[in-house]
Amino acid sequence: MKPILVINPNTTDSMTNAIGVAARSVVGPGFEIVVSQPSFGPRSIEGHFDEVIAAAGVAEQVRQYSERPLAGVIIACFGDPGLDAAREATDAPVLGIAEAAFHAASMLATGFSVVTTMTRTCILAERLVQRYGFERHCRGIHGTDIPVLALESDPPQVLNVLEASAREALLRDRSGAIVLGCAGMAAQCLALQDRLGVPVIDGVAVAVKWIEALSSLNLRTSKRGDYADPLPKEYVGWSAPLGWPEVDS
Ligand code: 2AL
Fold first, then answer.
1. What are the CA-CA distances from residue 224 to residues 39, 80, 119, 176 (Å)?
2. Which of 103, 93, 79 is nearest to 5 (CA)?
3. Which atom of ligand 1 is nearest to the CA of 12?
4. What are the b/e assignments for 169-200, b being 16+ CB within 10 Å?
5. Whether the Cβ atoms of residue 73 and residue 86 lie closer than 8 Å to each other
6. Quick check: is 249 in a domain?
7. 118 and 147 in contact (C-beta within 8 Å)?
8. CATH, residue 140
9. Mapping DSSP to helix (H, G, I), strand (E, B) and coil, where does residue 37 land?
């Protein structure tokens, strides 16, 4: 069984477990899902400060698993924190769930809308849309003002709020698909798709499938150029174990 490491960049155990359930519900034969979360950092990621600390947590987890023969790594938070750093730290393919979802949505509709959690997190998704070059496909990003950790507390009510926001987004943006803007929304994906009658994309599920495809084609992260291993150097303080040692050849 080839392991796919799914990192929840926040430190809420129940959300890590839920992400594991979502990933295992779609994983194909020959692959297994291994879930992890950082040993430090915010319980949820809802802004720039949270995201910076969470990115270091993602680096910690990739570093911890870097000796294992992974089929791939998934960063299961919609800000894709630490994505480039993770690609330096392993040659396994690494996908962020926002990146994976944008690619899938752009293949299923000419325009998509993102429905996310707190309105203040919309800027994080907006910047990813720009960074990945999806400005011509993403027609709007909509905050529901549901806090990340409240997604688990009342699923039927969350589904109603997501449905209302998605219906407005489809109309206002003239979109053909909805991207879920938080890993904690994975459990709502199929029910929402049934209600809306348009593709609803959960980045956790599509990232698992992209990783299976890349791994089956024996495609790994390029180690030529800027995704080469981090330069060996000493790190100090709490980050000391993350330093890349000199390898004797
Ligand atoms: C997220 C997410 O996916 N996990 C988390 O803690 N925050 N995204 C978001 N837009 O709130």
1. 31, 22, 38, 38
2. 93
3. 6
4. bbeebebbbbbbbbbbbbbbbeebbebbebbb
5. yes
6. no
7. yes
8. 3.40.50.12500
9. coil
Gap between the terminal Cα atoms of the chain = 30
Note whether residue 144 is domain-resident: yes
pTM (2 d.p.): 0.97
**Total number of domains in the chain:** 2
75 and 6 part of one domain: yes
- pLDDT tens by residue, the chain, 249 residues: 999 999 999 999 999 999 999 999 999 999 999 999 999 999 999 999 999 999 999 999 999 998 899 999 999 999 999 999 999 999 999 999 999 999 999 999 999 999 999 999 999 999 999 999 999 999 999 999 999 999 999 999 999 999 999 999 999 999 999 999 999 999 999 999 999 999 999 999 999 999 999 999 999 999 999 999 999 999 999 999 888 887 665
Which of 11, 78, 127, 129 for mutating ligand 1's site (highest number of atoms within 8 Å of CB)? 78
Residue type, 169: A
Please indicate, yes or no, if residue 248 is contained in any of the structural domains: no
Pair 151, 70 in one domain: no
Asked if 105 and 8 sit in the same domain, the reply is no
User: Which of these, 125, 130, 180, 175, lies nearest to 158 by C-alpha position?
Assistant: 180
Task: Give the structural domain span for 112.
Answer: 98-203
User: Ligand 1 site: residues with CB under 6 angstroms?
Assistant: 10, 44-46, 77-78, 116-117, 121, 148, 181-184
